[in-house]
Write a structure and sequence with these properties.
- The strands form 2 sheets. The protein has a 6-stranded parallel β-sheet, with helices on both faces. A 6-stranded parallel β-sheet has the order 9-8-7-10-11-12, sandwiched between helices.
- It starts with a strand and ends in a 6-residue tail after the last helix.
- The protein contains 16 helices and 12 strands.
- With about 375 residues, the protein is α/β, with parallel strands linked by helices.
């Protein structure tokens, strides 16, 4: 039986959780694979996205490369040529998965394969965009009930929810806590508050700086990521927590080592569909402090309390209090929130399990696909 061929159309690649999730899902599927992946926004690291699909292409979109960005040489081709290339790839595909692809309107009616709209946003500010994209899709998959609520009611009724998940191999340390801390010159007695993600508006990485400024001197902050807000965050760190915030700019480092070197994860986003970083931390047994966003409420209704919650844009003292409570959580052993969260992550939010859920959806969407 030949593998199901998938083409992906997305706005970005290598910069967020949604693209990583889709790539991981299809790497774990025996009977389906991504052939071509077309992306509108120039990506930062070609090596990092090389394993996402057989072929990754950067097509002309609304943004030009910024200083330091890497793009494929394909970008010099005009849109008319890329339009034909996309349609050609889709003609040899069994399905097309798309999100955020601004040019789908002029392509959708020419694509014979079923188009699957993947909804991963969590903010109501994305409602109009997702409703527009939904017009050009045959099927829909949402990463949470909060994401599904962005769809028109008639479409939402038939849209399955398939949560995100973490790759267990990604959270296993390669070097281990002691070695990684030595490399980063973190004192043995220090406690580390970790942020992993893009440094962009809405992710609120600066909340880590604020929290560290309100925590005892034994705490330091660790930011793993990159993005346009880097200069502002460096400036805030120098002003409010001088010498106490470490920034590891390589978002492609082995995340397992960052998790192992840390004591608490902070996820202070304004909104999320279903952030992979929380599942990664919980899979690794790391306590989590997170904004009380709708998807966390969904998970806690099913499994009980899983993390220490903070309101959106809280004062530094509120974050610091939650962080210190989280740091003590593991002292409670099997009764801790962290133990419960790790059990839920292992049993429900790993990539192999999420891949099985996607395979089930594909069976419903594509008649010729049978596992």
């Amino acid at each position: 039986m030949r593998k199901l061929r998938i083409t992906v159309l997305s706005h970005v690649i290598g910069a967020g959780g949604g693209d990583q999730l889709i790539a991981n899902i299809f790497r774990h599927m025996r009977h389906a694979e991504i052939g071509d992946w077309f992306v509108e926004t120039p990506f930062y690291n070609e090596d990092a996205v090389a394993g996402f699909a057989k072929r990754v292409h950067c097509v002309p979109g609304s943004e030009e490369p910024r200083a330091g960005e890497l793009t494929t040489t394909d970008k010099i081709q005009p849109w008319t040529e890329w339009r034909m290339a996309i349609l050609e790839a889709c003609s040899h595909s069994d399905a097309v998965i798309m999100w955020g692809f601004s040019r789908i309107e002029e392509l959708a009616r020419l694509i014979d394969a079923p188009v699957i709209h993947f909804i991963q946003a969590g903010s109501q500010l994305s409602k109009a965009r997702e409703a527009k994209l939904a017009e050009f899709a045959d099927f829909h998959v949402a990463v949470s009930r909060a994401a599904r609520s962005l769809l028109p009611d008639d479409i939402a009724k038939t849209c399955p929810v398939i949560y995100s998940g973490a790759d267990p191999m990604r959270v296993v340390p390669a070097k281990g806590r002691q070695v990684q801390r030595q490399e980063w010159e973190i004192p043995d007695e220090a406690k580390v508050l970790l942020f992993i993600g893009r440094l962009v508006p809405g992710k609120n990485a600066e909340a880590l700086v604020q929290a560290v400024s309100a925590l005892p001197d034994s705490w330091i902050g660790l930011i793993v990521g990159s993005g346009p807000k880097m200069p502002q965050i460096r400036e805030k760190a120098c002003e409010f927590a001088p010498g106490r915030v470490l920034i590891a700019q390589d978002p492609w480092m082995h995340i397992g080592d960052a998790l192992a070197a840390s004591d608490v994860l902070l996820m202070p986003s304004d909104s999320e569909g279903d952030p992979i970083v929380i599942h990664e931390a919980q899979l690794a047994g790391l306590p989590v402090v997170a904004t009380d966003i709708p998807v966390i409420q969904e998970h806690e209704r099913a499994f009980g309390e899983l993390c220490y919650k903070i309101p959106t844009s809280p004062p530094p003292s509120v974050i610091a209090e939650a962080v210190q409570l989280a740091a003590q959580d593991r002292d409670h052993g099997a009764l801790s929130l962290t133990a419960r969260a790790r059990s839920a992550a292992w049993n429900h939010f790993t990539v192999p399990r999420i891949a099985a859920n996607w395979a089930e959806a594909l069976e419903a969407f594509i008649p010729q696909y049978r596992r």
